[in-house]
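Technical annex, item 7. During the second reporting period the consortium partners agreed on a shared format for inverse folding records so that results from different sites could be compared directly. Each record opens with the tokenized structure and is followed by the designed sequence. A conforming record, contributed by the partner at site C, is shown below for reference.
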């Protein structure tokens, strides 16, 4: 039988994404972001995000169908992110997907956002190999997974116990007087800075945390350390060396993220690492991940950025995998679950 055409809807955070795939082939990936509307608050405002999804969803859906060059009739199934994410934002996508499924008579699949990030990689040219360790880092999550099978064997190894990595970038950017979103701003500000100028703390890397938090992350202490450092400099009447602070902060984040990810590869004997989420856009993350992968004999996979940040194509791709595995549709009796486990 021909591979199913699946339409995926993603509204877990501030990106309204509609993607269309045929099996593992990408047909369309359209994203509308409400990032600009959140900029003046310095972070994503849930209520604003939900409202923006409501406005953006129909045009984004139309644009995706146009990009794929197909009519809704030609879609075989619909997939939607049911969690984790912001409740109000998720509800918009789930409601729309249900309406679409009922109206069109297509089967509906509820999918997990985090597993979707990994699922994006099936759209890459080279087939993804399992098992793989996956590190997902964005403004909303910092999760380390071991994925033995996309459909029924995904295990959460660890996650952040406070701020997400992207959130730390956003907060530190604000401390340095840089606009939102902070990640790209810190990348820019760090150019020419000395990453060893200031030794900022590495959260949960201490041996005393080795047992309980071996694969977990913490960034709020780092953020506070940067704030204190900047305050002290200002109180002393010194000019804040923004490039050095940005580079040193970024180095601390990258060090923790990659130390834990490669530790998981070594501990579990899995020489494969997949990266996903908006923070993967970071220049140092990419550079240092490539260097550590080469020296530790790990195969590194980083999907194109358009598939790393939140998008509908990854949700469609995971939906297609569920269908290929013979999974029954989810029906209509499921809700948005902001804390949905993998
Ligand atoms: O995956 P994403 O687009 O959306 C969600 O958060 O769900 O990720 C956005 C996050 C923001 O926190 C942003 O600051 C961060 O990714 N980010 C970066 C970079 N570009 C975006 N963080 C570090 N370096 C970057 N170059
Ligand atoms: Zn995400």
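Designed sequence (site C submission):
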């Amino acid at each position: 039988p021909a591979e199913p055409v699946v339409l995926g809807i993603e509204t877990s955070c501030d990106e309204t994404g509609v993607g269309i795939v045929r099996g593992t082939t990408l047909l369309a990936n359209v994203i509308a972001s409400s990032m600009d509307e959140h900029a003046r608050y310095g972070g994503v405002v849930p209520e604003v995000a939900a409202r923006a999804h409501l406005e953006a969803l129909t045009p984004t859906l139309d644009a995706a169908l146009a990009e794929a060059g197909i009519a809704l009739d030609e879609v075989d199934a619909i997939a939607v992110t049911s969690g984790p994410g912001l409740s109000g934002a998720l509800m918009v996508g789930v409601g729309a997907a249900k309406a679409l499924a009922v109206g069109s008579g297509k089967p509906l699949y509820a999918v997990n956002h985090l597993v979707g990030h990994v699922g994006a990689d099936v759209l890459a040219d080279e087939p993804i190999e399992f098992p793989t360790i996956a590190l997902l880092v964005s403004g909303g999550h910092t999760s380390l997974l071991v994925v033995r099978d996309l459909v029924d064997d995904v295990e959460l190894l660890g996650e952040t116990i406070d701020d997400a990595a992207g959130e730390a970038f956003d907060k530190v950017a604000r401390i340095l007087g840089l606009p939102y979103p902070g990640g790209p701003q810190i990348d820019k500000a760090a150019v020419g800075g000395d990453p060893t100028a200031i030794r900022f703390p590495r959260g949960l890397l201490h041996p005393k945390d080795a047992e309980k938090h071996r694969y977990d992350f913490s960034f709020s202490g780092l953020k506070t350390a940067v704030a204190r450092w900047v305050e002290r400099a200002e109180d002393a009447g010194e000019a804040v060396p923004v490039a050095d602070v940005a580079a040193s902060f970024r180095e601390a984040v990258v060090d923790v993220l990659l130390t834990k990810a490669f530790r998981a590869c070594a501990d579990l004997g899995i020489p494969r690492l997949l990266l996903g989420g908006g923070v993967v856009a970071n220049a140092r993350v990419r550079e240092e991940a490539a260097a550590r992968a080469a020296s530790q004999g790990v195969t590194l996979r980083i999907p194109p950025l358009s598939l790393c940040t939140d998008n509908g194509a990854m949700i469609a791709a995971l939906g297609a995998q569920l269908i290929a595995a013979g999974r029954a549709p989810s029906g209509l009796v499921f809700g948005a679950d902001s804390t949905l486990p993998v």
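The radius of gyration is 20 Å. The chain has two domains: 5-122+307-324, 128-302. All partners now use this format for quarterly exchanges.
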